[in-house]
Amino acid sequence: MPDLNGMMLFAAVVRAKGFSQAARETGMPKSTISRKVAQLEEQLGVRLLQRNTRHLSLTQVGALFFQHCETICHEVEAAKATIENTHNDVSGSLRVAVPVSFSQETIASLCSGFMRLYPNIQLDVQFTDNDVGLVGEGYDIAIKYGPLQSSDLVARLLFERQPILVASPGYLKNKGTPATPKELAGHHGILLGTSRSAPIWPLGKGSRKTMVNFQRKVRVNSAVMVKQLAMDDFGIAMLSSSSCKNEIARGSLVPILQEWPIEPFKVYGVYSSRRQLATNISVFLDFFTKRFNSQEAAQALMF
């Protein structure tokens, strides 16, 4: 039987995208975690992770095994929560607004895990890019991209993602590779946004930050579609580095203007300050932060 502790440490490495970060998050020595994962691979007789000096990636069987390890981790948490909930039962309804650009598959998986962990909460999840009124429209939580305007809302930073500009080799061969931000004005861009979004990208950081215009080829509110259109040679796109890591590794997308690093995207969980932080809101935000990073970590390590 595989070592349960080794399985949980393997899952921690995948979520952290590396042994060093897993060591920091678990408080265990990196050498111990590496040895436990190696022993697990020896027990199973398969390679779960491909390692070299610069990269770590899941093998095909490792990706499948990770899903089972995550289920076990969830069940362990659920068992702990069952004991805790005998003293403080988490229940009630929870209405959540999520941006359309988020992966519906990832959100579905997150919600399934959350409902298993907190079976007495009734979820109502709506994908929308409308500027929802939390109180007036009955939402308890809205997941929003920052920066946020000041209001009577409380915003909790959930995570950050590093955006980069990418294009396909075919597009760059036909249109040329921009060498400066100003040259983007002569290029087609694929805009991720709503009908109110303008064809403008913020490049650089701090005093070097500049807003640049481009020729909008198409505007969609799906990051998956933006990536596909970029790979199909329709223009330059701004995407999170983790969402297109595999395409860059395969050469189907190419990073451009890397000497102009972009401020990270910030994603917040927002709730009304008119309410005290209810337990169901708190546990949802805690779960969302941890599990969203876990889901994306697994996707980012798959080749």
Automatic annotation (TrEMBL):
Pfam families: HTH_1 (PF00126), LysR_substrate (PF03466). The keyword Metal-binding does not apply. Keywords: DNA-binding, Transcription, Transcription regulation. InterPro entries: LysR-type_TF_proteobact-type (IPR058163), LysR_HTH_N (IPR000847), LysR_subst-bd (IPR005119), WH-like_DNA-bd_sf (IPR036388), WH_DNA-bd_sf (IPR036390). The keyword DNA-binding applies. CDD domains: PBP2_CrgA_like. Residues 2-59 form the HTH lysR-type domain. PROSITE patterns: HTH_LYSR (PS50931). PANTHER family: HTH-TYPE TRANSCRIPTIONAL REGULATOR, TRANSCRIPTIONAL REGULATOR-RELATED. Belongs to the LysR transcriptional regulatory family. This is LysR family transcriptional regulator. It comes from Shewanella corallii.
